[in-house]
Structures are given as structure tokens and as C-alpha cells.
Amino acid sequence: MAAQNVKIQEGTGPLVGPLPFTDAEFRRRLEGVRAMMSSRSLDAFVSFTPENIYYLTAHDSPGYYFYQASVVTQSHPPVNVLRRIETTNTLGRGWSRRAVGYEDRQDPIDLTYGLLEELGVAGRTVGAEGDAWFVSPKRYEQLGQALARAGGRLVDASGVIEGLRVIKSTEELAHIRTAAKVVERAMRVAINASRAGTSENEVAGDTVRELIRAGSEYAGLPPFITSGPRTSLCHSTWAGRKYEMGDVLNYELPGVINRTAQPCSAAAPSDVRMVSFSVGPQWCRNPSSVSSTRSDPARARTMCTRPTRRPSKSTDTGTG
User: Does the structure show a pLDDT above 80 at 95?
Assistant: First the structure.
């Protein structure tokens, strides 16, 4: 593979909007990744995972169906390798604001290798996420072969960022709490809209409207709103079915704040409409406050926990 001449673009001027976290938070994350690199004797680290790229650089786009990567070294800010049109999201509203763009006709691995050469690490030890869903085995092997020809080597560095993401910072916890409040509001609306004669689509319309009004961003997956026989199907969602008395209802909603997703699940028979919450790190509330007047609060079950600095099941993700 002949090295591609790469030009690292740098964003200039004001961002189009505020960053989701402070500069100090992003620096803390970068320092954590670099410490992990040192512990594994890595001269560079390449992430292909949207959630991890967002964690490092604030790059946010649902366009991760095209190749993307973030390259970290000990002496340079993170640089994202992106489809040309997607570089706008790094340059205009990212943290590091550095990107290399490729055209659809170009091989992005050529550009990734060219970037590693430009940064002076192509002939050294480069770690990359070998178990990432977002890079094909062919491309991963292609990058390894190119590095080997330059006298370097590619090693599996899966889990470098995930291990850091597990421990939430104060800023991350604040977004989790906000997302939990947003999704609770939407769940109240979903429950109160659920009655015999209405349809899944009507409930979904009211629920999605409330999610957005309450401040939620787009989610990586849609709200799962289903009734009757289809509640036995994993990840089924609204399909226009009319509710009947005695139906089992199954709702799972996402509240997303700054790509931090906090889910809430509820399952109930529609003639009773009790709710079983699983809201995550949030103060517990009175079950009757989320039930309709026809509900039996004594039968409602809540499963909430106080916020802590312990690992959270919520995700800070580019996919929500």
C-alpha cells in the first residue's frame, strides 16, 4: 500500500453550538486513554466505535454506517478519519476539531495508514479495536499489513475506552439524571394514553412528542411500544394495533441527553395499567405519581436507585 498524502483539517472560528462536556472533561478522558496506551506500550491507538469516538472528540453523527476512526497518539490531539461530508461534525462542533476526510471512491484504510505515517507512528506499535462492529475483518487486516510493511505492527487494543467509560464523572452523572427525568415524563404520557380503543401509533405519537418536548435527542434505537401478542417479540414496536381490554403492554423508552441514553421499561395489563419502572440512577418516586387514576399503586413496582459514582448501565453513545 502506497501511503496517501493526507492533510489534517483543523476547525476554525466559533463552534456551531456548545460542547456536551467541558474542556476539562475531554482532557481527563484523553489523559485516561493515553495512560492506558502507556500501560500496553502503544505508540498510537485507533478507535472505530462511534460511542468511543464521541467520548474522545464529541463527533456526533448517525452516519456511522460509513467507515470512521479516531487516531490518538501521546503527542497529538485525536484526529478523526471520516467520510468527507461527515468532517463538518468534527470541525464545526467537535472537541479536538481535527479530521482527515475521504471521498466515497477512496479507500479509507489508505487514509488511516497515511495519517499514522503523517503522525510518525506507522513504523511502531499501533493498537486498534479488533472487536469493533464498525470495521470489517478485511479492512482491519489491511491496516495491519500496511503497518507491517512499514516496520510497525498492529495489536488488538479492544476495551481501552470501554473500561474508562464504565466509571462516570460528575458531568456524565448529571446528564444521566437529566435523561432519566426526561424518559420518566414520557413514560407517564405513554401510560396515561393507554386505554382500550386507542392504537399503538397514537400512544407512540404522544410519547415521542413528549420525549422531544422534554429535551431528548434522537436515540440509537426507536422507542419500543407494543401490545397484545407482539409483546412476546424482542424489540417489536408500534404497528397500528388497536388496544383491547386486558391486553398486555410492553414499553421501553429512551431518554437521550448529549448522547447519554437512559432507558425506562414498563410492562402492564391495560385494564390495570400498573407500571414496573427500571429508570436507573435516579431518586425513587411515588409509584402512584406515574400511574393513572385507574391504577392500583399497591401493585405498582418501582426499581430505582440513588445516583452514585459506581459503574452505570446507561451509555454515553453516538448511537444513543
Answer: yes
Note the CATH number of domain 9-165: 3.40.350.10
Length of the chain: 320
Residue 15: count of CB within 10 angstroms of its CB: 14
CATH number attached to the domain at 170-316: 3.90.230.10
Of residues 150, 103, 131, the one with CA closest to residue 140:
131
**What's the DSSP call for residue 108?**
H
Q: Is 320 exposed, middle or buried (CB count within 10 Å of its CB: 0-12, 13-18, 19+)?
A: buried
pLDDT of residue 301: 32
pTM greater than the 0.90 cutoff? no
pLDDT score for 2: 58
88 close to 116: Cβ distance less than 8 angstroms: no
Cα 115 off chain centre by: 26
Query: Closest Cα partner for 54 from 3, 20, 100?
Result: 20
State yes or no: pLDDT of 320 exceeds 80.
no
Q: Show the cell assigned to 290.
A: 406515574
| Distance from chain centroid for Cα 47 | 14
Indicate if 170-316 has the same CATH topology as 9-165. no
**Cα 259 to Cα 262: distance, rounded to the nearest angstrom:** 10
pLDDT range class, residue 246, cuts 50, 70, 90: confident
Q: In the chain, where does DSSP find H-type helix?
A: 23-39, 50-57, 87-93, 108-118, 137-149, 160-165, 170-192, 200-213
Average pLDDT over residues 237-249: 92
pLDDT in tens, 57-78: 999 999 999 999 999 999 999 9
Rounded CA-CA distance 179/150 in Å is 47
Instruction: Give the domain ranges of the chain.
Output: 9-165, 170-316
CA–CA dist 312, 172 (Å, integer): 10
* Contact call for residues 287 and 300 (beta carbons, < 8 A): yes
